[in-house]
Design brief:
Blueprint: E1 8-11, E2 17-21, H1 30-43, E3 45-48, H2 55-62, E4 87-90, E5 93-94, E6 97-98, E7 101-102, E8 107-110, E9 122-129, E10 137-141, H3 142-147, H4 151-157, E11 161-165, E12 191-195, E13 197-199, E14 206-208, E15 217-219, H5 224-239, E16 245-247, E17 254-258, E18 262-266, E19 276-282
Parallel strand pairs: 2-3, 4-7
Antiparallel strand pairs: 1-2, 3-17, 4-19, 5-6, 8-18, 9-17, 9-19, 10-16, 10-18, 11-12, 11-15, 13-14
């Protein structure tokens, strides 16, 4: 057993991601895990290139970063046949039904399950099969989004909270277990309130927290029109940044992101090609 770690990180062409070098998924110790965790917290996104591990190895590795969270899609079309911890992301159809979640469409900028009381801390995504083009994943830092806010905008959101409705998903589909609301005012629907600026539970740094959609979001206590304008301005500021890391997937690539301080999106791809990914998700704290 090694006493010292050989794990290191090489920063990519943005401030959001680094490649992890020297980590062996079949032979690692506590020091190796501590090094990976340190780089994950430093960069927000880390990547392992073409490591070709098994589902069980992914589950074992993920356990070092927190309890497992069952993603909502795992309760629908994205369940794994033998590993309940894994969300299958796939556009493959079997007997006319999806064999995984998300299909081949674009996924716009979001943090994962922002409508939870305790959104997950992290996600670990592994490429099983990838299309020849498309399906790229993009990441940005919400630390950076907060730290580069103009003073006027920063003052406008100081101490503010944001409400996210939890009845419909981003596509307008009723979420699992939810009923059609009787009110037309989404502020009266079931949902969750989080700080608009959250403090990371491990690093202590502040990050802008916009969830996953402008629609169905409200800055608590503001007139709705003013809230909509301010939220739109914050989204524009956050997503217009040129400092974005683009993951062009290769088979065996693994990307691990900190859901507390990043946002991500996915390109669409040709439905006649195949993209299969296996994801594990780890628990997080309630945003403060």
């Amino acid at each position: 057993m090694r006493m010292n770690t050989k794990v290191s990180a090489v920063q990519n062409d943005s401030n959001v991601c680094a490649d992890i070098v020297g980590f062996d998924f079949s032979d690692y110790n506590d020091a190796d895990i501590a090094a990976v965790r340190s780089y994950w917290l430093q960069y927000g996104v880390i990547r392992f290139r073409a490591v070709h591990i098994t589902d069980q190895q992914q589950v074992n590795f993920s356990r070092h970063f927190g309890d497992f969270v069952i993603h909502p899609k795992q309760l629908q079309e994205g369940g794994h046949p033998t590993h309940r911890e894994i969300l299958v992301i796939s556009n493959v159809m079997t007997d006319g039904k999806p064999s995984g979640a998300l299909g081949n469409s674009e996924a716009t900028w979001h943090t994962d399950t922002w409508f939870y009381e305790r959104p997950p801390a992290g996600a670990i995504l592994r490429a099983i099969e990838v299309p020849p083009s498309g399906g790229d994943t993009y990441f940005l830092s919400t630390y950076h989004a907060y730290e580069t806010l103009p003073e006027e905008l920063r003052n406008a959101i100081e101490g503010r909270q944001i409400f996210f409705q939890s009845v419909y998903d981003k596509t307008g589909r009723l979420r699992l277990g939810k009923s059609e609301p009787t009110s037309t005012d989404f502020r009266e629907w079931s949902g969750v309130v989080h700080p608009l600026v959250r403090t990371h539970g491990e690093t202590g740094r502040k990050a802008l927290y916009l969830g996953g959609t402008r629609e169905g979001s409200w800055i608590v206590g503001m007139p709705l029109d003013e809230s909509n304008d301010l939220i739109a301005e914050l989204w524009e500021h956050t997503t217009a940044t040129p400092d974005v890391f683009v993951q062009k997937w290769g088979v065996g690539d693994i990307v691990m992101w900190d859901n507390r301080c990043t946002m991500h999106r996915r390109d669409s791809f040709d439905p006649n090609t195949i993209r299969i990914m296996h994801r594990t998700t780890t628990s997080g704290e309630r945003p403060v």
